[in-house]
Amino acid sequence: MSEIKGKLIAIGGAEDKGTILEKALAIHHNLNFFGLGILRRIVDEAGGVLARIEVVTTASMIPFEVGNNYLEAFGRIGCTNVDVMHIRTREDVQDEDYIERIQDCDAVMFTGGNQMRLTSIFGGTKFLRIIQQRYRNEPFTVAGTSAGAMAMSNTMIYEGDASKAHLKGEVKITTGLGFMQNVIFDSHFEKRGRFGRLSQAVGANPSCIGIGLGEDTGMLITEGNKMEAIGSGMVVIIDGHDIRHSNIADIPEGNPMSVENIRVHLCAKGNGFLVHERQFVERMAKETTPIMQDWD
Fold first, then answer.
1. 52 within 8 A of 65, measured Cβ to Cβ
2. What does pLDDT average to in each consecutive run of 10 residues of the chain (296 residues)?
3. So what's the pLDDT on residue 25?
4. CA distance 264 to 239
5. Sign of the CA dihedral 105, 106, 112, 116?
6. HSE-up of 236 (CA within 13 Å, CB side)?
7. Strand bridging mode 7-11 / 217-222
8. Count of C-beta atoms within a 10 Å radius of residue 250
9. Separation of alpha carbons 234 and 12, rounded Å
10. What per-residue confidence (pLDDT) applies to 286?
11. Whether 102 contacts 54, CB under 8 Å
12. What does DSSP say about strands 272-274 and 226-231: parallel, antiparallel, or unpaired?
């Protein structure tokens, strides 16, 4: 298979958009070193502030509010060539204007909301095929936050109550948008306590690497393999390749699962992971999370 030339940026949700509230939260959680970092990284990877970026609000039930928030946030960075696609139905996605725009832009960003809206509206369409082809064959950037990140892979979690995620059948899986194989993304990972949810998904699909994205945190993926942690929080990697005991195939629905030898890695900014090699990388980027210094 030829090397993938595009880039994926999967974000766990609640990325800093430079609002007063988010700045206050950032300071409270010692995140003030970050400031618009993820969105700025999207702009940099797309080619800079003159890059043509399309924001797709399909997953959201408040698309105009969400779209305006991103227009303002990208505007704070200095972007002047950002637009919003309010695609609501499968009829909308066939509009020639949207087809032309997705062919001409440098990057596309899928917002948060309901990931099933993304797969049910875009699945099998010319619009999605264009994005997939451009991602594989061009230096094209595909970003997604929350639901937009969860839908990126071929295997997608679409439902699962975190409080019941240890029970077989409580985590629902379907087919995503297919930009990446053999991974499963989950978002808002620490905030919503989704370790059990992603563990069940990996336990049932041990060929996949689970990627639990914290809020205001993401993974920049190049060549379909090299993942670099970006943002202010943590990414949890769950690797099920070496699972030995697992009862998930044999127990009745609603019973607790039992799995042995899942491997877990924790990635902060600058750390990375190689998907094909299943290998943690301490320095995937030049810049890593600041280290506390001793003071005299």
1. no
2. 90 70 41 59 96 98 95 94 98 98 98 97 98 98 97 97 95 97 96 96 97 95 97 96 96 97 96 97 79 53
3. 42
4. 6
5. positive
6. 21
7. antiparallel
8. 9
9. 10
10. 72
11. yes
12. antiparallel
Is beta strand 209-213 parallel, antiparallel or unpaired with respect to 183-186? parallel
- 211, 37 in Cβ contact below 8 A? no
What pLDDT score does 292 carry?
Answer: 53
Phi and psi at 100, nearest 5°, equal -65, -40
Distance CA 211, CA 237 (A): 5
Give CA torsion, residues 280, 181, 3, 103, to 10 deg.
Answer: -120
Distance CA 205, CA 1 (A): 22
Q: How far apart are CA 172 and CA 1, in angstroms?
A: 30
For CA atoms 235, 201, 66, 53, the dihedral sign is: positive
Distance CA 7, CA 59 (A): 21
d(C-alpha 157, C-alpha 53), whole Å: 27
What are the tokens at 84? 């919003």
Distance linking the first and last C-alpha atoms of the chain: 55
Which residue from 191, 125, 189, 180 is spatially nearest to 156, judged by alpha carbons? 180
Strand partners, 279: 274
CA dist 177 and 187 (Å) reads: 16
Give the other-Cβ count within 10 Å of 35's Cβ.
14
Residues 279 and 224: beta-carbon distance below 8 Å: no
Bridge partners (DSSP) listed for residue 108: 54, 142
- Give the position of tokens 């094209």: 140
pLDDT at 32: 30
- Phi then psi for residue 223, to 5 deg, are 60, 15
Nearest to 217 by CA among 80, 50, 37, 53: 37
- Cβ-count burial of 293 within 10 angstroms (0-12 exposed, 13-18 middle, 19+ buried)? exposed
Maximum distance among all alpha carbons in the chain?
Answer: 66
